[in-house]
Structure formats: C-alpha cells, structure tokens
Specification:
- The protein folds into three domains: 169 residues, 3-Layer(bba) Sandwich (FAD/NAD(P)-binding domain), CATH 3.50.50.60; 110 residues, FAD/NAD(P)-binding domain (3-Layer(bba) Sandwich), CATH 3.50.50; 105 residues, Enolase-like, domain 1, CATH 3.30.390.
- It is 31% helix and 24% strand.
- α1 packs parallel to α9 and α3 crosses α6.
- The protein is globular and about 70 Å long.
- The chain binds flavin-adenine dinucleotide.
- Flavin-adenine dinucleotide binds next to α1, β2, α2, α3 and β4.
Length: 461
C-alpha cells in the first residue's frame, strides 16, 4: 500500500492536465488535480474555443456581403452587437467549465482549488485564493501549467493588452493595432477586422507566420491585405503613449498609428512562477520551459511535465496526446491496447485567419533540406463560390513530394475550410501516402479539396 495520499497529483487543469487526470483515474489511479483558475485552461477560456467562436462571428460579415451575388437583398445593414457576442461566448465558456468540472468528479478525481507549488518532489502545497493552505503527497506529480502571453520591454508597455483580454474588451475597438506576426496575432487581426474594426498588423520580421511554408506566408499576407487588413512587415514599435483613452503607437519607421486598443501578440512564456522548480532542482531550458525526456520525466525523479509548459508544440491536441502517452507510461495502457508513444511528425494545424491556413507535414524549405530532391505541385484558383460572390479571394493548394520515396511529405492550403480539409489529409500523410495514391484517389466534385488529388503539373523541382 502506497504511503502517499495520491498516485498522481496534476498541477494545472487545462487541456493536458485534465486529460492526464481523467485517464489516470480510469486506470484506477488515485488522482488529485490542482487548478487556480477556471477549468479547461487556455484553450477553453482564452484560446482555441473563444477564438473560433469569434472567427465564426467575423465570417458572417463577409457572408452578408457575398450573399448579394447570390440574389439576397439585405434590407438593413447588419450591425454587430458586441455585448451580445461577449455574453453568448461567456455562457458557452462557463458551460464548458462546468463540463470539465463534471469530468473530474465523474472520474473521481479530487479537485483542489488554488495555486500548486512543489515543496519537495512528492509534496504539493495548495494555496487557495483566501490564503488557506493544504499539503498533499503523491507518488507522481505532473506539471501541466501551460503558458501565458509575453510582452517585451517597450516604452508604454502598460498601455497594451494581450490575447487574454481581447475576448472581453469593454468597448469594441473601432481601430486596433496588433503587434506580432505569429498565428495568434494574425488570427486576432483577421477576426477583429472581420467584425468591423480598422486593423493594422505590425511585425518586425520579413513576413508574417514565421515557421509556415514561405509560399503560404506570402499568399496569406496578400489575401489578408485584399480583405482590408493593413499588414506592415519589417516594422517595429518604438514606443506607445496614451492619447486620452486612445493609444498612439510610434513606429520605428517614423509613422504613428492611432488606435483604441493595442494588442501585443509577441509570443508566450511558460507558467512556472512560484512552482518551486528551482527549490526541488528541476532543470529549465530556454525561456523557463521545463526540460523533459521522451517519457515527459523532468530532471527530478517522480515529477513529469507536458503541454505548453515544456514548449514543444503548443497546441491543444499535442497536450492531449502527450497526456495519454504519459498515462500509458505511468499506469499502463488500457486493456487490449498498446502503450501510446508521442510522435511530433505530421501534426496538422490551422490558422483561423480569413481565409484560413491548413497545413500538415514539412514546408518546402524543410523538405528540400531533409530530402534534397523534391517536387512541388501547386495550384491557386478562384473557388466556385467566388464566381458569384464578388470576392476576389483566391485559394492555394500545395503538395510537396519526396522524389526518392514518392511520398507526399507536406500539404498546405490557404482557403475556406482549410483546417477541416487538412485534418482528413493528415491521415493520408500519417499513413505515408504517395503521390500516385493521391492521383488514384477520386475527387469530391465540386470542392476545393479535390484539387489535392488532381494536381498533375510539377511547379518546380
Ligand atoms: P493550459 O491549457 O494553458 O492549462 C494550464 C492550466 O494551469 C491553466 O488553467 C492555469 O490556470 C493552470 N495553472 C498554471 N499554474 C498553476 C499553478 N501553479 N497551480 C494551479 N494551476 C495552475 N491550440 C490549438 O490546438 N488550436 C487553436 O486554435 C489554438 N488557438 C489558440 C489561441 C490562443 C489565443 C491561444 C493563447 C492559444 C491557442 N492554442 C490553440 C494553444 C492551446 O490553447 C494550448 O496549446 C493548450 O491550451 C495547452 O494546454 P496545457 O494543458 O499545456 O496548458
């Protein structure tokens, strides 16, 4: 019989923590979960879910416009009721918070409210918001505390907001400046522009969406500009100042932007404050991320970490998959199943810009570096819908094929429903599908996705 109160204590009730707690409890482990805030973590409260809801709201705006080309007559000009959107979102998020709490109680996970801190490698101290403290011991401790927005030192830093604040802004920002060209900045810029704001996106790098395929980056930047977004690359912020309740953003190129709100989407940092990591000797890497091995073990026996706090691939499905692999490792796989291993290849992802990006596998640059001889197939076209909608939006589809194996090693799309489409093709890439197998697949007509199985012309080698 174990001398510990629990077999597993999870610190953090986000995507990874909740999944690990629930699956460990299903394997018969005695589990405690410590969460200091609302259940569900970043994804549910200030990430994927509210973002996708607002992106959907923004898509209606172009839908109203485009419907005219299909014979609809809009009697009144549709207007956005920002408080109504915020209320609807908040109701849905609290419904999800309740579902997550319910998942814990039905799995018989002991839920502790408060800030978790390691006192030693098997003891966690929980401090509630009223200051009350309790201690518990566990055979294993999992740190799944996620991350938070990072704002660099800049004069006027106190005048800016982060993605956490965007969903509940008291007033809808008529003029918004977004600083940062990563996926969160691009999505927020696109969403608020769609909802009716005048948006300028400022990014100091060469092109937005660093890390994505270069052709995709150029293509989506052009499309965003066509949608009316003012995208300024190779531009930095010198300082920000208040102008009454507004903000003035002074750029390094001498220009000044005026805005109601300035959003800094300049990266994220791990939530490691006051976790006791240094006291117990847990090794941290760049920017404070927790160092782990292939089984999510930290440098200290009995303590594990996963999800955004380890900074591998900061995506919800990755945190979920890591959690399941860890549970299999610690408590064994479910009866009749193999222990899951975590693989970081072929992780599909979407950027919910307007139009969205969907991608799986390697970029053209990565494929060339890894395989040398590759072939690129691509097509950009006006989707059928836009033959009547009046929109000039174009869609890009792109395949990258390794010459030696004939396998499709990268698949990219910019266009409506790119995330939905790429999810299906991710299975094909995961199975090692070849270009010939793509060619032998019958298309669904008329769709944009069928282009992926009808690409015959080599664009370049
Ligand atoms: P989190 O979900 O962040 O959970 C960590 C939890 O730990 C939090 O609830 C926090 O309150 C709690 N915590 C922290 N410290 C302590 C402590 N000491 N004691 C107790 N509790 C603590 N991913 C996608 O896959 N698709 C998307 O479309 C997407 N969109 C995003 C949009 C935005 C704006 C952002 C910010 C992120 C988005 N992500 C998206 C990323 C995704 O949200 C994260 O990868 C995911 O939530 C990571 O899960 P996690 O379990 O590691 O951490």
């Amino acid at each position: 019989m174990s001398t510990h109160d629990f077999d597993l204590c999870v610190i953090g009730g986000g995507s990874g923590g909740v999944r690990a707690a629930r699956f460990a409890a299903q394997r018969g482990a005695r589990v405690a979960l410590v969460e200091s805030s609302a259940m569900g973590g970043t994804c549910v409260n200030v990430g994927c879910i509210p973002k996708k809801l607002y992106s959907t709201a923004a898509h209606y705006a172009e839908g109203f416009d485009e419907s005219r080309g299909f014979g609809w007559q809009l009697v009144d000009t549709p207007t956005l009721n920002w408080p109504a959107l915020k209320t609807a979102r908040a109701q849905e998020i609290s419904r999800l918070n309740g579902i997550y709490e319910g998942l814990m109680s039905s799995a018989q996970v002991t839920r502790l409210h408060g800030h978790g801190r390691l006192l030693d490698t098997r003891t966690v101290q929980v401090t509630a918001s009223d200051g009350q403290q309790q201690r518990l011991s566990a055979r294993h401790v999992l740190i799944a505390t996620g991350g938070r927005p990072f704002v660099p030192e800049v004069a006027g830093r106190e005048l800016v907001v982060t993605s956490d604040d965007m969903f509940d802004l008291p007033e809808f920002p008529r003029r918004l400046v977004v600083v940062g060209g990563g996926y969160i900045g691009c999505e927020m810029a696109s969403i608020f522009q769609g909802l009716g704001a005048e948006v300028t996106l400022v990014y100091r790098g060469e092109q937005i969406l660093r890390g994505f395929d270069d052709e995709v980056r150029d293509f989506v930047a052009d499309e965003l500009r066509k949608h009316g977004l003012d995208v300024r690359v190779r531009t930095d912020v010198a300082h920000i100042e208040a102008d009454g309740s507004d903000r003035r953003v002074h750029l390094s190129d001498g220009h000044t932007l005026s805005a109601n709100v300035v959003l800094y989407a300049t990266g994220r940092q791990p939530n490691v404050a006051d976790l006791g990591l240094a006291d117990v000797g847990i090794r941290q890497g760049k920017n404070g991320t927790i160092e782990i091995n292939q089984h999510f073990a930290t440098s200290v026996p009995g303590v594990y970490a996963l999800g955004d706090v380890v900074g591998r691939k900061e995506l919800t499905p990755v945190a979920l998959a890591e959690a399941m692999a860890l549970v299999d490792h610690l408590f064994g796989p479910a009866p009749g199943e193999q222990a899951r291993q975590m693989h970081y290849d072929h992780i599909p992802t979407a950027v919910f810009t307007h139009p969205p990006v969907g991608t799986v596998g390697l970029t053209e640059g990565q494929a060339r570096e890894r395989f040398g001889a590759i072939r690129v197939y691509r097509s950009d076209f006006k989707p059928l819908k836009h033959t009547l909608s009046g929109s000039t939006e174009r869609t890009l589809v792109k395949l990258i094929v390794d010459d030696a194996s004939e396998r499709v090693v990268g698949l990219h799309m910019v266009g409506a429903d790119a995330g939905e489409i790429v999810q299906g093709f991710a299975v094909a890439l995961q199975c090692g599908a070849t270009k010939a197998q793509f060619d032998a697949t019958i298309g669904v007509h008329p769709t944009s996705a069928e282009e992926f199985v009808t690409l015959r012309q080599i664009a370049r080698r």
